[in-house]
């Protein structure tokens, strides 16, 4: 096995090893292959499947800092095989970034938005980045009559820029009012189908813009008070912005258009999220405090806008960072006469492309 960490011990000082290609060829190519597809198992002497850096669908979704972490600390830092050596002692972080620059040349199609844009998911605002995720969301009324709403959301990417989504909600509600016993009612809510497409992305500016269209079907048990009795179409524009020092923004502007306009009014909504990803151990768990401002207004004259603030905290649970938890509170700050209560919100997210739910923990 040539080119392992032992032979790399003096690489950091080698004046010839200061360009992307030179670092990659000297330190990485023996295993990852000159073309980034992985050397043949015979040459490697082990049969751990090698990543294919020329496969854009795989390579573009990983952000550089994650890959630098793997190269610096070795495979186990993200629950990969220890056969991926740690180069932290042999190469400087600047050299590892150069190796990444070369690895990035193996995917030759620049249509694919980079994983850097896969910013932490807010509780309410939709992200611009297309994802492969399964999310289990729960909202619990923190005051007023008991209410628990859950949704299972499945998201799947297709092609470089697109994503399909289905969301199936289920809810429980405490009965209130005269004659109500202490029972809880339960029922299916309105199932949503959605499509998302990236319109524009530019990593040097840190900007991504997408459009999304959702249709919510009147599948809810309306007799029990769950869901609505009209299908609703929800087009929206999605914006993501990377900022220095781990800060980021999300924005979403959209409309809710009922197909049966006699019962419900059109609505416009505006959502912002600002946050910062912090990695206390430099290479390990990511903590992301965020706050969202969520507003909506019915499109009829005289209607008031209502606004909620949603402070929240996301944390990566698994070592692979593909399982994440977010918890927060949705607090009405200006309820526009809608008489809403504070809610506790939580989701568990599994990025299934990055590994099985039980894989990647140690
Ligand atoms: C001794 C062989 C060897 C060398 C040398 C080596 N790697 Fe690796 N690398 C591996 C193996 C094996 C894996 C796959 C680990 C797994 O999937 O469990 C891997 C995986 C990776 C990954 C993770 C990809 C993913 O799945 O997200 C990155 C990034 C990486 N290597 C970067 C580098 C860089 C940069 C260098 C040079 C500085 C390098 N490697 C040198 C063996 C090596």
Summarize this structure as a short list of keywords or feature phrases.
362 residues, mainly beta, Cytochrome Bc1 Complex, Chain D, domain 2, 2 domains, twelve-stranded antiparallel β-barrel, 13 strands, binds heme C
Approximate strand percentage: 35-45%
For the sheet with most strands, the description reads: 12 strands, antiparallel, barrel
CATH fold title of the largest domain: Porin
- Secondary-structure-derived class: mainly beta
CATH architecture of the largest domain: Beta Barrel
Brief digest:
Helices cover 11% and strands 38% of the residues.
Describe the structure.
The structure is a single chain. The protein contains six helices and 13 strands. By secondary structure, it is mainly beta. The protein has two domains: 11-103, Cytochrome Bc1 Complex, Chain D, domain 2 (Orthogonal Bundle), CATH 1.10.760; 115-354, monomeric porin ompg (Porin, Beta Barrel), CATH 2.40.160.40. A twelve-stranded antiparallel barrel has the order 1-2-3-5-6-7-8-9-10-11-12-13. Helix 1 crosses helix 6 (93-103). It is elongated. The relative contact order is 0.12. Bound molecules: heme C. Heme C binds at residues 1, 3-4, 27-28, 30-32, 48, 50-51, 62, 67, 70-71, 75, 80-81, 83-85, 87, 99.
């Amino acid at each position: 096995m040539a080119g392992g960490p032992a032979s790399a011990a003096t690489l950091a000082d080698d004046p010839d090893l200061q360009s992307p290609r030179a670092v990659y060829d000297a330190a990485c190519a023996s295993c990852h292959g000159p073309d980034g597809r992985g050397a043949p198992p015979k040459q490697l002497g082990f049969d751990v499947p090698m990543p294919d850096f020329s496969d854009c669908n795989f390579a573009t979704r990983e952000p550089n800092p994650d890959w630098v972490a793997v190269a610096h600390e070795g495979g186990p830092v993200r629950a990969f095989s220890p056969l991926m050596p740690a180069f932290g002692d042999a190469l400087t972080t600047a050299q590892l970034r150069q190796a990444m620059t070369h690895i990035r040349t193996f995917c030759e199609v620049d249509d694919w938005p980079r994983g850097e844009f896969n910013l932490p998911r807010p509780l309410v605002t939709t992200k611009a980045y297309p994802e492969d995720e399964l999310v289990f969301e729960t909202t619990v009324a923190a005051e007023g009559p008991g209410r628990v709403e859950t949704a299972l959301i499945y998201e799947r990417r297709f092609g470089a820029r697109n994503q399909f989504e289905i969301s199936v909600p289920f809810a429980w509600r405490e009965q209130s009012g005269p004659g109500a016993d202490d029972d809880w009612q339960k029922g299916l809510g309105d199932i949503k189908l959605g499509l998302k497409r990236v319109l524009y992305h530019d990593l040097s500016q840190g900007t991504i813009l997408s459009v999304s269209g959702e249709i919510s079907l009147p599948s809810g048990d309306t007799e029990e008070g769950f869901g609505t009795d009209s299908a609703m179409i929800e087009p929206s524009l999605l914006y993501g912005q990377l900022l220095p020092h781990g800060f980021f923004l999300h924005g979403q502007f959209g409309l809710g258009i009922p197909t049966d306009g006699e019962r419900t009014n059109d609505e416009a909504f505006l959502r912002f999220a600002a946050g910062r990803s912090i990695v206390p151990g430099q290479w390990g768990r990511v903590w992301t405090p965020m706050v969202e401002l969520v507003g909506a207004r019915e499109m009829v004259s005289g209607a008031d806008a209502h606004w909620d603030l949603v402070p929240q905290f996301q944390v990566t649970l698994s070592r692979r960072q593909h399982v994440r938890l977010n918890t927060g509170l949705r607090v009405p700050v200006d309820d526009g006469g809608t008489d809403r209560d504070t809610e506790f919100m939580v989701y568990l997210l599994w990025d299934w492309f990055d590994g099985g739910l039980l894989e990647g923990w140690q």
